[in-house]
Design goal:
Structural class: alpha/beta
CATH superfamily of the largest domain: Type I PLP-dependent aspartate aminotransferase-like (Major domain)
Strand order of the largest sheet: 2-8-7-6-5
CATH topology of the largest domain: Aspartate Aminotransferase, domain 2
Largest sheet: 5 strands, mixed
CATH class of the largest domain: Alpha Beta
């Protein structure tokens, strides 16, 4: 049964006209984009679910705060607005602004990780893997096995398997592990949450071995919402209290503030100790800007300070996550195989189950992205072999990820339920004709940066 979405906890104050390009226009757009969704012009897309990063609508309070921006190079008032919000909402004493999430990864991985290091994760996302590769380090997935079972209803499929974590530490040794990192929610595994109990266990393992715990906390408020709903010990806690308890498990966090903190640009590193702060901040100055603005204008810092508070609003989170679930329920009702339970920020379609006749080496998730765009001018993104395969540099052997997913990331406070219903109808139409999709994609151009080829790859269709 499709659950009803609660009424919007906002009124629409400004609109942006959009149009549906016709079929011929879509074909020309695909050719021009070289069949890569990142290559499409936004004007050629009707409903854009490529990412929830920086694509949401800001509140009137955030727009008002922008007018308070102090653009001083060093020590601006706007930085202290952000620092105060970080302390109040997250509990960290040291706040380092950067321009977005991958900038946070750049300064952290570039400062703390050396060649040959190994970082235990639940599962890293694409840019995170890219920064690990760039540092000549590697990661080891320690997520629970249930994460790879599409139909398993485990409430916290982003959890770290503690036995796997202990095994990784025993195998590689403390000297090669600069930190443990957990992504909340677990984007690569279908937007699945991590329980507070599990984070406390991971933190205890880290403390036992003297290894810091870092959180990739872009979707930390959504993760807190799931904890409140699914972890009975936390049912009476507020979202703000759960979020603070989550942060208490970590020594530091990296944040793409373009997700839960509700801004169109911005990122954050926060930590507890002066020692870690001074390890990280020189790289901020080298790559981002001075330590108190980090590549952002003062007005961006002000909007972010407001967004950090707004993201903990339970009414906002309930509507947002319910709208995501609504899309997932409509797709499941139409027979479309999706990762269950539906995650917090996106619906993840199991492309391997949707198109089982297309070999993984022919990029079925990205074939699906093309067909969905053809059907309804809807843009999502494949998160399968194209994004996560490994190719041995010596032998050329390809190793594919366990999951071949297509993601529909829902923008915050942006689309109506009518838009959601249109997306579902379009994808169900593709599912009904799935057996007629008898082609794959072949790489024509691959960028030289390891781990990030899906952003810039040139592809061409090939018959199967």
């Amino acid at each position: 049964m499709v659950a009803k979405v609660p009424p919007e906890p906002f009124r629409i104050k400004m609109v942006e006209p959009v149009r549906v390009p016709d079929g011929d226009e879509r074909e020309r757009a695909l050719e021009a984009a070289r069949f890569n969704m990142f290559g499409l012009r936004a004007a050629d897309v009707y409903i854009d679910l490529l990412t929830d990063s920086g694509t949401g609508a800001m509140s009137k309070q955030q727009w008002a705060a922008i007018m308070m921006g102090d653009e001083a190079y060093a020590g601006a008032d706007s930085f202290f607005s952000l620092k105060k919000a970080v302390k109040e909402v997250l509990g960290f004493d040291y706040a380092i602004p950067v321009h977005q999430g991958r900038a946070a990864e750049n300064v952290v991985f570039g400062s703390l990780v050396k060649e040959g290091d190994v970082i235990p994760f639940n599962m890293p996302f694409d840019t995170t893997r890219g920064h690990i590769f760039n540092a000549k380090a590697s990661s080891v997935d320690c997520v629970i096995d249930e994460a790879f079972d599409r139909t398993n209803q485990h409430p916290f499929k982003g959890n770290v398997d503690i036995a796997k974590l202990e095994k990784a530490i025993a195998e590689y040794g403390k000297a090669r592990i600069p930190f443990i990192m957990v992504t909340i929610t677990n984007n690569s595994g279908g937007g699945q949450p991590v329980s507070l109990a599990n984070l406390r266990e991971v933190s205890a393992v880290g403390k036992k071995h003297g290894i810091p715990l870092l959180l990739d906390a872009a979707r930390m408020a959504e993760n807190a919402w799931f904890i409140k709903r699914r972890e009975k010990e936390c049912a009476q806690m507020s979202i703000a209290e759960i979020l603070k308890a989550t942060m208490d498990t970590a020594d530091a966090i990296t944040v793409s503030c373009k997700k839960d903190p509700l801004v169109n640009i911005g990122g954050l590193v926060a930590c507890r100790t002066e020692e870690m702060y001074y390890k990280i901040v020189p790289r901020v100055i080298l790559f981002e800007g001075f330590a108190t603005y980090g590549g952002l204008a003062g007005r961006d810092l002000e909007a972010l300070a407001v967004g950090l508070h707004e993201m903990t609003d339970e009414q906002h989170l309930t509507h947002r996550i319910s709208q995501v679930r609504y899309l997932g329920d409509l797709l499941e009702e139409g027979g479309v195989p999706c990762i269950q339970p539906i995650g917090g920020h996106a619906v993840f379609i199991d492309a391997a189950a949707f198109l089982p006749h297309i070999p993984q080496g022919s990029y079925p998730a990205d074939v699906l992205s093309v067909e969905i765009y053809r059907e309804g001018a809807i843009r999502g993104i494949g998160l399968g072999a194209l994004a996560f395969e490994n190719v041995d540099e010596k032998t050329g052997k390809r190793t594919f990820p366990k999951l071949e997913l297509f993601r529909l990331a829902i923008n915050r406070r942006t689309y109506t339920n009518s838009h959601i219903e249109y997306v579902a109808e379009s994808i169900v139409n593709v599912y009904k004709r799935r057996d007629s999709i008898r082609w794959g994609l072949e790489m024509v151009y691959e960028p030289p940066v390891k781990g990030l080829k899906h952003f810039l790859a040139h592809l061409k269709p090939v018959s199967l």
